[in-house]
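Researcher: Re-running this chain for the archive, since the previous output was lost when a drive failed. Same request as before.
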Amino acid sequence: MGNETVAHIALLAPVPRVHLHSALETVTPDGQGAFGTKAWELFNEPDQKRAGLPVDVYIYQSHPEGSFEGKATWHARYVRLEPDRHEAKPYRPKSTETDSVEGEVYWTVERLRQMQPTEYISVADFVGFGRSKPYGKLFPPHRPLLVEHPL
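Model: Regenerated C-alpha cells:
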C-alpha cells in the first residue's frame, strides 16, 4: 500500500509511553502493531468512511493516573480493528503480554514512528469530527477519538 491515507478524518489516541517504545522494539508480522481499547464502537465510523485506505493516527503518550503531556508526538496509520485477542497477540508490543482487559478490542497500525518536535500537534488544537471548534486547553482525552484531519 502506498502513502495515501483518508484525507478528511484521523484518529487521536492515547497509548501508554511504555507500550509505544516497546512496539518499536517488538518484531511483528508486516511491522504492524496492535493496541487495546474498549472503545470498539468508535472504529465503526472510520471503517465505513475510509474505503479501504489507512487512517492517520496521532498518538499522545499517556501516563499513570491518566496524565498526559498535551501533545500528539507519535504518528501511525490505522489499518484494521481486531476483536479477537488471540488474532491480535502477534501484533501486540511485548510490554502488553500480561495485560488482559475484559471487553478489549485491538486497533492495528502500521508505520508507527515518533514524530519530530516540529511535527508535534497540541491535543487542544484538534477538532472533533463533524465539529467546528478545537477541543481547547481544558480537554483531557482518555480514549481514542475521531477527529478532523489536522493537515
